[in-house]
């Protein structure tokens, strides 16, 4: 009987290699195309700013609003950031730009954990108030999103973002929907809203 053995690999070698790969992957994520700590700060979405996806004047509508800064690209007609009158338009636009090779530096959405928001009824639908000042925004990659709640924004049913997971859970318990992190939000989920 022949006994062929390959090169001997120790457990320590495997763990060392795995650790090095993990560090390299993490460094690639931090230095590559994702959000980073040197990112620009959010701006106010007041005045005549029009949504870069639908063209509506942002401050004239309810619900979460967003803005995204890109590296080496900018929206048509103005400098960064691209701005939006709803969370789902922010995601939709960003997915389309990523497909075109754009790199997001940082994205922001209304953080309903950091503002005093109101809900109100209008023609049989319940809406959540908009908040447009810079301090009302949280980083997209640090928020928890309620999708499928019985609450509307500028474009109808929307993702409602919170920086505190407990706030998102409580909102979903009261108004329906499920809680997601940004990495769980897909183009399919956004299209279903």
TrEMBL record:
| Pfam families hit by this protein | NosL (PF05573)
Keyword check for Cytoplasm: no
Which domain of life does this protein belong to? Answer: Archaea
- Cytoplasm keyword on record: no
Q: What is this protein called?
A: Nitrous oxide reductase accessory protein NosL
Give the record's keywords alphabetically: Plasmid
């Amino acid at each position: 009987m022949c006994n062929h053995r390959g090169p001997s690999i120790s457990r320590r070698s495997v763990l060392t290699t795995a650790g090095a790969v993990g560090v390299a992957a993490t460094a690639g994520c931090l230095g590559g195309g994702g959000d980073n700590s040197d990112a620009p700060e959010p701006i106010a979405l007041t005045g005549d700013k029009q949504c870069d996806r639908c063209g509506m004047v942002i401050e004239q509508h309810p619900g979460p609003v967003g803005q995204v800064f890109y590296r080496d690209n900018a929206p048509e007609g103005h400098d960064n950031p691209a701005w939006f009158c709803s969370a789902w338009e922010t995601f939709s636009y960003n997915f389309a730009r990523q497909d075109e090779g754009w790199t997001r530096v940082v994205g922001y959405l209304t953080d309903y954990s950091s503002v005093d928001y109101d809900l109100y009824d209008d023609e049989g639908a319940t809406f959540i108030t908009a908040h447009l000042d810079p301090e009302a925004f949280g980083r997209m990659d640090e928020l928890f999103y309620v999708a499928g709640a019985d609450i509307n924004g500028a474009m109808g049913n929307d993702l409602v973002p919170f920086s505190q997971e407990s706030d998102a859970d409580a909102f979903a318990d009261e108004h329906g929907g499920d809680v997601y992190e940004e990495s769980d939000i897909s183009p399919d989920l956004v299209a279903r809203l």
